[in-house]
Amino acid sequence: MKLKDDRKVELIFEAALKLVAKKGLSGITMGDISREAGIATGTLYVYFTGKDELINALFAASRANSVQVAFRGYELTTPFKLGFRTVWMNILRYKLQHFEEVVFLEQCYHSPYITEETREKARELAVPFFDLIERGQQEMLIKTADTGLLLTFMMGAINELVKQTHYSNETLSKKKIDLTFDLCWDALKA
């Protein structure tokens, strides 16, 4: 039996992300992915039994990576607003630098391809975000509204800024970043 090569998995994931950004989840086939990755379709099936398995694996890996990056440099001992800004900026930078992944994740959230098991893993990965907002609520710095709703607002603001920046081909200025953060903070603060 042939051992799986981690580099091939990366190539497959990169190819899938690129194709989903161009054609959407339902518009791609295993043949499209193998051609884009530069591997034989049969080889692709060594790694994934089908498109559903590949999409779920890529979703889980992308979600785990985005959460890990979001909390880089965040410390519970840091004053809340500064820590919140660290996470907010990490999310913004990540989404700007990994736009194809952003498009992919957004499509997956609303897709029948994603299994309940994968969705449950995504919910578990989201716990640090809920903890962050709940910390702010406990410190009476964040509104005492539904945590999920507050996160939806925060992520939605970041997502729209990233899409606007990407599709306009403009460079995002520090002034615009600071203003967007301030608007988000002002909307969430108690």
Describe the structure.
GO terms for molecular function: DNA binding. With 190 residues, this protein is mostly helical. It has 2 domains: 1-48, Arc Repressor Mutant, subunit A, CATH 1.10.10.60; 50-188, Tetracycline Repressor, domain 2 (Orthogonal Bundle), CATH 1.10.357. It has helices spanning 6-23, 30-37, 41-47, 51-70, 80-97, 99-109, 116-125, 127-138, 147-168, 174-188. The radius of gyration is 18 Å and the shape is elongated. The mean pLDDT is 94.
List the main descriptive attributes of the protein structure presented here.
DNA-bd_HTH_TetR-type_CS, Homeodomain-like_sf, Tetracycline Repressor, domain 2, 2 domains, AcrR family transcriptional regulator, mainly alpha, 190 residues
Q: Short description, anyone?
A:
The protein contains 10 helices and no strands. It has helices spanning 6-23, 30-37, 41-47, 51-70, 80-97, 99-109, 116-125, 127-138, 147-168, 174-188.
N-to-C span: 59 Å
Give the overall silhouette: elongated
Uncertain residue ranges? none
Query: What share of residues are in beta strands?
Result: under 5%
What's the helix count? 10
Number of discrete domains: 2
The CATH class of the largest domain turns out to be Mainly Alpha
Order of helices and strands: HHHHHHHHHH
Number of strands: 0
> What oligomeric state do the depicted chains represent?
single chain
- Helical content, roughly? over 70%
DNA-binding region: 29-48
Keywords: DNA-binding
Protein name: AcrR family transcriptional regulator
Pfam families: TetR_HI_0893_C, TetR_N
